[in-house]
Amino acid sequence: xxxxVASTNYINSHELQKELVKxxxxxxxxVEYFVKENKTPHMSKRDEKKIREKAERESxxxxxxxxxxxxxxxxxxxxxxxxxxxxxxxxxxxGRGIMFLCMYAKNFNYKxxxxxxxxxxxxxxxxxxxxxxxxxxxxxxxxDDIIKKNMEVTELEKxxxxxxx
Length: 165
What we know:
Number of strands: 0
Order of helices and strands: HHHHHH
Structural class: mainly alpha
Shape: elongated
Strand content: under 5%
Helix content: over 70%
């Protein structure tokens, strides 16, 4: 009896690859449909290329429930690794990783000889985490600068001592 993907922590890489292939194929079908609907008989190659680019920007592909659950598990488990473990904004980071997966998973090239779906998806999520951490660090530094400017000297010294400990 086949177990539901959502009920286990284990993600079968073959199932992940099958779901990514389905996502890629539906995405390509959407692009072709859009191009077919907007193409005219006497259109130049340049205009056709512009329509295809617009279709690629606007077509999303549909993430199935099973693939969505896999994305959630991958993002959650990746956030528990040592390099992401102690951040206070972990849930937001997971959300950013899932958002990146939904945006970029459709670009998986399953026709490559050594296509590794799990590595591809993990790297997308990792990059989402890193971008979110950089953004939060920038906001945190700006917030600290504002606090420093508005504090009295004695309060500033106390605050710096607390941060250095």
